[in-house]
Structure formats: C-alpha cells, structure tokens
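Let us practice reading a record.
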Amino acid sequence: MSPLSRPRLALLGALMAAVGWAITRMLVSAGRSPLPVPWTVLVVSVGAAVLALVLGWSVRQYRKGKNPGLTGLRAARTVVYAHACAYSGAIVGGAYAGYGLALALDWGHLPRREVAISALVAALGGLALVVAGLIAEHWCRDDEQRDKGGAPA
C-alpha cells in the first residue's frame, strides 16, 4: 500500500469544500433553509481519530519490541484504517468547511450564523481525522519503508 499523500488529501479537501460551498450557495439562493449540523458529527469524528491513534500506537509499540502479541494482519488493518480515516476526514472536513463558509456570508442572520458555526466545528472533526490518520500511518511504517514507499510492517 502506498503512503498517504498530503497534497492528495489537501486537494480532496479543497475540492469537497468547493462542492459544499457551491451547493450551499445555490440552495440558499433558491430560498432553502440550511440544515443544522448535528453535534454527533464531531463526536464520531473525534472518536474515530482516537481509535486510529490507539491502534497506531499499538503497532508502534510492536515495532519497538514491546507488544509481541500483535500480528502482521492487525498491523496491516491498522494502516488501512489510518488511510480510511485520512481520506474520509478530508471529505467530511472539506464538505463541512464549504458549507460553513458559504453560510458565513450571511453572518448577520443569527440562525445561519449558528449553522455556520456548527458546520465549521464539524469540519474541525474532519481535520482531526486527517491528522490522526497521518500520525497512525507514520507509526506503522519504519524509516526504510517510508523512504522507499514500501508496505507496512
């Protein structure tokens, strides 16, 4: 599996932000009311990010010889989970950032301001997923494999 590409993640997040912004502006211009973002988006995103870090830490400990019970299959699954977190975080974070920024243009309108704030907070949850995925992947790869773009341990 190839390592995560930071430019690819940034491009995906920016693309989703542009799509989220465009769709939101189109719907608001048509007179539709924006839907509030549930607080559970942040909770689930942070929970998934913490899980990625916990799993990545156990692989890191294994690489240092401190967790001999870990299997190679679990380490590979951890890398796949880290990649999934990073990509889904870029998608979620970008989409909610676009949604929040599009609504922030109407900052003077209190209900839209509240929705914009909740969307931007949800975007922070997506950013947490991206960062946790990058850190967990880093912990799962050794220096030689990372330099050569090789497979996880």
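A brief commentary: Confidence is low (pLDDT under 50) at residues 143-147.
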